[in-house]
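Issue: ligand-bound run for magnesium ion - logging full I/O for the record.

Environment: standard queue, default settings, no custom constraints.

Inputs:
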Amino acid sequence: MTKIRVLDPDTVNQIAAGEVVERPASVVKELLENAIDAGSTSILVDVASDMAGITKIRVTDNGEGMTGEEAALAFTPHATSKIRDIADLCAVRTLGFRGEALASIAAVAEVTLVTRPRGGGALAGTRLVVRGGEIVEKNEVGAPEGTTIAVERLFYNTPARRKFLKSRNTELAHVYGAVENLALAHGEVAFRVVHNGKERVATQRSEGLLNTIAGLYGAELARSLVPVEGRLPFLRIGGYISRPSESRGSPSQISVSINGRSIASRQIAAAVREGYGTLLPKDRYPVAFIELSIDTGLVDVNVHPTKREVRLSREREITGAIAAAVEEALAGHDLAREAPAEP
Ligand code: ADP
Ligand code: MG
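Outputs:
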């Protein structure tokens, strides 16, 4: 008899799920990332809630879909179509690669998947019900091309996690935030969010970030923004920033994407702020939408299970270039009549 034992797979999955699925918004983020990776051009997020909180999240995409065999495999931990080995990770272009999201979500919820591969190869689609990590139903159904995943009873078997959920409105705000972040990084996709039958967020498929910003935050804000541009041999900086007359009390409205991945980075937010210098009063921050394309070899995306953080090689050069690009963008604009408000 030894005191050490190898945990059974169900327990392992629940522990892993704890890292990936923190709240309903994490489910939305992971399902959206999968839909984007599947080449979708249109994605619908349908959320239902009652007084107690969010009861159902359903994401429908028109992406490449899955065969019945693939659908069953997709819920196996560490099953992915996106990388084969660690070398692939250095050049990964997809948002996913860990093969953990569906397994994690299914470990702590009840998931219904309906999918049919694009291109007419399969006559029928596949419907799967997965509960507590086990496939409990599998059948053929008529289905449009693409994938619909519905998640219900989130955290039904993890009461501790359920207790940490905030109010319904706070959780909904996180859900909308997750959609906004991905929409900003993926103008090639039209996103629509519906809550209890009412449309909450809608973006058109568009060529430009500015159109997406207008769709999410209104044409007035979009019109007031100043474009930013910058370049290094391994880096392209694009995006839009607010005029100094428009500012916020925290850096939370500085949104950053790197190679289509929405990320959180204090260093980059600080670089954007630095570019304003004394144009903003102390402790004020701009609204900014920064898009970075960086050689994939310089970006380590495998830092955190939720992939919200990345590690950058040559970070000092990158943040320096961002601050310089912001400064230049502001200098190029007639800001004379927009001196910062007296604090
Ligand atoms: P990852 O995205 O890291 O590969 P996931 O657990 O999120 O891992 O998904 C597992 C696999 O299931 C994916 O690699 C993909 O092949 C397939 N898959 C998941 N969602 C979709 C979808 N919406 N459309 C098509 N295939 C999907
Ligand atoms: Mg994924």
